[in-house]
Specification:
By secondary structure, the chain is mainly alpha-helical. The chain is built from 7 helices and no strands.
Length: 166
Amino acid sequence: MVEKISDFEEIVKQHENMIHHLIHKCGIRDYNQEFYQEGMIALWKAAKTYDESRGKFSSYAYFLIEKGLLSLIRSQNHQVEKQEACVSGLSMERARMSDSFEIGFDPYLLHMIEENLTENQMKWFTMFVLNDRPIKEIAATLNVTEDAVKNWARHAKPKIRKLLQM
């Protein structure tokens, strides 16, 4: 266990290469020294929590540093996935909005309609109202009966009327 800062400085001198080794072993390009810093934090934790009765310090430090680096990698990958999902969602929203502009339909109203209709009612609205396709063709495309499509329309129309009156 570390008692003084000078003790930790000695530990760093002895084990700093271990941090560099693990960064290299994981194939990390550490331009901002972020992973090195994580390794130093893990080394500090190892020095603070080491118990001599449980084995060699170097093995314990190696384990904590490797665990810290892998946690940081996972965290960064998770952030990248969230950013990609956000960008993908924005791209889809932009595409949907540009489609509504192309057909001369208010994107705000379209969004309100989407929020109020069921999935099947929205299929009817998109294909029948926006794309001007006949009921028979919609039923064939979606592999349902014409009556099902007419039923979607019957339930969707009052919802749309209510939105238009707002």
